[in-house]
Amino acid sequence: MIEILISLFVLSGSLLSLVGSLGIMRLPDVYARMHAATKSATLGVVLLILGTFTYFLSEGVFSLQLLITIVFVFLTAPVAAMIISRSAHRHGVKLWSRTKHDELMESYPEHLKPERHDES
Amino acid sequence: MLETVLVTGLVIFSISLLLCIWRALKGPTLWDRVIALDSFGLNLIGFIGILMILQSTSAYAEVVLVLGILAFVGSVALAKFLERGVVIDRDSH
């Protein structure tokens, strides 16, 4: 019974991570790739570590490090993603050509607007 | 049954790690590489998690925790450095 639960955690976690990596490979610009990497990969890793924690709990070992890892990944992955994408936007990395609206650009004061340039 | 599932998970995570490496090599901007390396660190955590169940040892628990911390600190430091050329800046606007 407990094996089925662990298998479910492991399979869903690894599939979600695969979806995240496919998003990193296929999506058009930095900000879209950020969205794919952060959301699905975080949930995938958290589910998988939860499966590992369940396995060791069924063996009679309570592993506090794994619980701390879950909380840490859950808290820090969105923060890192926000900092990276804000850094890219401030430096002026181009958006996808079909993006309709750049809301963050409107919040800059007039003399601080970054110039858009393509670094390829 | 559990072992088959675990090996399948390892294969899926290997594909996912390879996709991250491909994006980190290809670019095109530096921030793409930073995202790919951050995601590589997260996927490595999952890989080692499966390895822990497969070998039935809790010796890698600290490795997992330290990898999570290093991925976060590395990505934040790289992003700050690429933004202005410094990691800690004094004026915050």
Automatic annotation (TrEMBL), chain A:
Keywords tagged on the record: Antiport, Membrane, Transmembrane, Transmembrane helix, Transport
Keyword hit for Transmembrane helix: yes
Pfam families, alphabetized: PhaG_MnhG_YufB (PF03334)
Localization annotation: Membrane
InterPro entries, alphabetized: PhaG_MnhG_YufB
GO cellular component: membrane
Domain of life, source organism: Bacteria
Any one GO MF annotation of this record: sodium:proton antiporter activity
Keyword Ribonucleoprotein tagged: no
Membrane association type: Multi-pass membrane protein
Transmembrane segments: 6-24, 36-56, 62-84
Similarity comment text for this entry: Belongs to the CPA3 antiporters (TC 2.A.63) subunit G family.
Name the UniProt record assigns to this protein: Na+/H+ antiporter subunit G
Provenance organism: Salicibibacter halophilus
TrEMBL record, chain B:
Recorded superkingdom: Bacteria
Molecular function in Gene Ontology: sodium:proton antiporter activity
One Pfam family hit: MrpF_PhaF
UniProt keyword terms in alphabetical order: Antiport, Cell membrane, Ion transport, Membrane, Transmembrane, Transmembrane helix, Transport
Compartment list: Cell membrane
Spans through the membrane: 6-25, 34-54, 60-82
GO cellular component: plasma membrane
Main location: membrane
Its membrane topology: Multi-pass membrane protein
Family the entry assigns: Belongs to the CPA3 antiporters (TC 2.A.63) subunit F family.
PANTHER family: NA(+)/H(+) ANTIPORTER SUBUNIT F1 (PTHR34702), NA(+)_H(+) ANTIPORTER SUBUNIT F (PTHR34702:SF1)
Name of the protein: Na(+)/H(+) antiporter subunit F1
Taxon lineage: Bacteria, Bacillati, Bacillota, Bacilli, Bacillales
